[in-house]
Amino acid sequence: MASRKQSGRITREDVARHAGVSTAVVSYVVNEGPRGVAPETAARVRASMRALRYQPNFNARALKRGSNQTIGLILRDSLNPFFTEFYLAIERAAAEQGLRVVVADSHGDPDMEQQLATELSSRQVEGLFLMSTTQSQEQLAGLRDGIVPTVLLDRPAPYPGLSSIGPDAYAGATAAMEHLMAMHHVASVGLIINSGGFGDPDPRRVAWEDGFANAGLAPGPVAVNDWSNLGGYRAAKELLGNGTLPDSLFVASDHQAVGVIRALHEAGIDVARDCPVVSFDGTLSSAYTWPALTSVRQPVEAMARQALELLQDPGASPMHHAFAVELIVRESCGCVLPDGQDRQ
Amino acid sequence: MASRKQSGRITREDVARHAGVSTAVVSYVVNEGPRGVAPETAARVRASMRALRYQPNFNARALKRGSNQTIGLILRDSLNPFFTEFYLAIERAAAEQGLRVVVADSHGDPDMEQQLATELSSRQVEGLFLMSTTQSQEQLAGLRDGIVPTVLLDRPAPYPGLSSIGPDAYAGATAAMEHLMAMHHVASVGLIINSGGFGDPDPRRVAWEDGFANAGLAPGPVAVNDWSNLGGYRAAKELLGNGTLPDSLFVASDHQAVGVIRALHEAGIDVARDCPVVSFDGTLSSAYTWPALTSVRQPVEAMARQALELLQDPGASPMHHAFAVELIVRESCGCVLPDGQDRQ
DNA sequence: GTGAAAGCGCTAACAC
DNA sequence: GTGTTAGCGCTTTCAC
């Protein structure tokens, strides 16, 4: 007795005493190395560990080793299904390498983001994934010469000094525009978007503008609102209220699109027929709206995997990976009749 | 120079040397205590910290202090919006007390859950929230006499030896049934549910059965499928395929209900008029389906707050808190016409 | 094959 | 008001 330390927790020393060995041996057993242990000794140690319900102290190990097999992920809005899917993809990719991921939500607040980055870094994470909300050079500068390797997620373009990945948003939005304009001979495409997405100007917006320029038309109406169901809903209501509802709509995120569809329904508009909608992200749930969303899908798994590689690449110089996106044609664009063929 | 340790990181010692003070003083400055420091000294130290870009080592501090101001949360399915909302509520409540939340996803796998619990506990979290997927006594027994205080989340009833919180699912489901049977003079209510929710038997199912018993009717059809959009979709398809689609449907989760609604649409069924649907959870996004879901809302914020209190209550004996739920009447039950009045 | 011991970076007595 | 120092629990080199 009297061996329990301040925390009241069982330590490796308790186990050592119980098993009649040194603390080193316990370590060798726990870590299966770096030295061998006689089978009987190992068995005795293991028995003691079980008997005492020993749990290694993660912090002590991390302190000693200088690392903790963990990577940090800073999300900007956990409620957005796209981000949740992204998180899961990262978690999966990390698990394959025995890495754990710790998530935090900045709620889109740059200060919070900064604070979380610092905190995660002082938790000695191996690296940091940042689904950033800020594009300011100064803000991110801290990260660049921070101690932890950092990879920016969900970026449409390279960022000086930091590795990053993201969808080719311009190409995706262009595909959406072309689909709307060419396939549907639609002359006016409204845009529903918000700031704080892919930076300013947002490539989705630029592609949308260019779509008109190429067709020799003037841009359609824009409604800016939150990246949420409610935001999309409000944006659509705004267009509806204005009497400026265009022939069709490009919505910059699935999450907003759900609200848009809802608002259109309320106004008695048959989306597929009277106001084709194409959105961006290609989340799982975008297949379950009525009508199902035609959406530009981001290759979440591939992006997650690549992000992890960038993080682990030792001293490689910062680089950006742009990922090809894919237009998933479902019902909201009016191409296909709702028939449930597209369920996954 | 030559002062950098293995990690290459700046330590408190580097700062001390740079500022010409002892390491203790640096600590006092960083922690604003427990001893005072002369203003000028403090300023000098702070300047040195900035100059060297010093970041305290979280692990070392946690090791020394025996705690790390962090609580662990084990979710069973991050893709389910209800859980995400719950997580956010917990994060918010925790933040108010300066606590950070570390989330992990067990993906509904009991072994994984166990493993994560152990791991989080060895990270010296102050406490653990477990959105458990297993009801087995043995499984949870480890937690009960584990080192970390643990609170079970999303439980419909007390669990021996562990504190827990959860909605009064039976009452909620009963309200749903009554609404469906009394208000709509509906004779048959189908149930869409899955296992692994509120235990076995699931109170929602029991309430559903009791609803019939009270009305002197035989239970309607049941379809069991995943707790997901797809699961709900498939369950509804199953009922549809059987030709056993009832007069109305009680769906045990919003997440499934989205898929159910979709399947009903595909079958050309006017949900509100021909097959009223009531679901469970009351997530934010349940207001954006078409028709909007009438759903039993769980008081997420209150539950999160209470869970935190239970965790922090020193040596209180384990107890269960059941939370009253509220039936949010929207459109899917057919009571209200879709008119957008119910947006939040 | 096993053990002793030196730290990892930090906190907080305890001295001065 | 400031400095010295003994650990927190663990890993691992180095002796034996």
Written account of the structure:
- Two copies of one chain form a homodimer.
- Chain A is built from 13 helices and twelve strands.
- Chain A has about 350 residues and is an alpha/beta fold.
- In chain A, the strands form two sheets. Chain A has a six-stranded parallel beta sheet, with helices on both faces. A six-stranded mixed beta sheet of chain A has the order 7-6-8-9-10-12, with helices on both faces.
- In chain A, strand 1 (about 70-75), helix 5 and strand 2 (about 100-105) form a beta-alpha-beta unit.
- In chain A, helix 1 packs across helix 2.
- In chain A, about 50% of the residues are buried.
- The interface between A and B is large, with 59 and 59 residues.
- Chain B binds a DNA duplex (16 and 16 nucleotides) through helix 2 and helix 4.
